[in-house]
Design brief:
It is built from 5 helices and no strands. With 159 residues, the chain is mostly helical.
Length: 159
């Protein structure tokens, strides 16, 4: 059973590791996609450089999701626990993606459209998870209620 603390810790760990990866990509080593843009395009061809920068960001954003799925596959055997972790991560990841809209007006329309697709998929997944929890609770309540009804019926026969 995966508790809330573990869900939060794992989510924050993924966000932290990806942030560290970005810093490393620009300080310790140059990411191949960014390197190509930096080496082959100069200020005169600024739009090509911006495309490489956006490509890097799209790949970097996707790596967050790939990393959490990898952790889940390796460390969490129960499907129900996997869903819980993904739901918690999705909520934080959605807030993270919202920050790109608020802070970075320099990105292209295509970049923002890509973000919107990702954010809608996350919202849908969070919504499905919430509905699943509601339906699960309703089912558990109904099962308990039916059990009590049968116990009452059986009580009449034993009296």
């Amino acid at each position: 059973m995966v508790d809330e603390r573990y869900q939060l810790t794992l989510s924050l760990q993924v966000l932290k590791e990806e942030r560290q990866k970005m810093l490393s990509d620009f300080s310790d080593r140059i990411d191949p996609d960014m390197g190509t843009g930096l080496l082959h395009y100069n200020a005169a061809k600024n739009s090509e450089y911006e495309l490489y920068a956006e490509l890097y960001h799209v790949i970097w954003i996707d790596e967050h999701w790939n990393r959490i799925e990898k952790y889940i596959d390796q460390k969490i055997p129960l499907e129900a626990d996997r869903r819980k972790v993904l739901t918690v991560f999705s909520k934080y990841f959605l807030k993270f993606l919202d920050g790109f809209d608020a802070k970075n007006q320099r990105y292209s329309k295509a970049f923002h459209e890509i973000l919107q697709v990702k954010k809608q998929a996350l919202r849908d997944m969070i919504g499905i998870s919430a509905k699943t929890d509601i339906h699960r609770k309703e089912l558990n309540f109904a099962m308990e209620k039916h059990k009590k009804q049968y116990q009452e019926l059986l009580k009449k026969y034993t009296e």
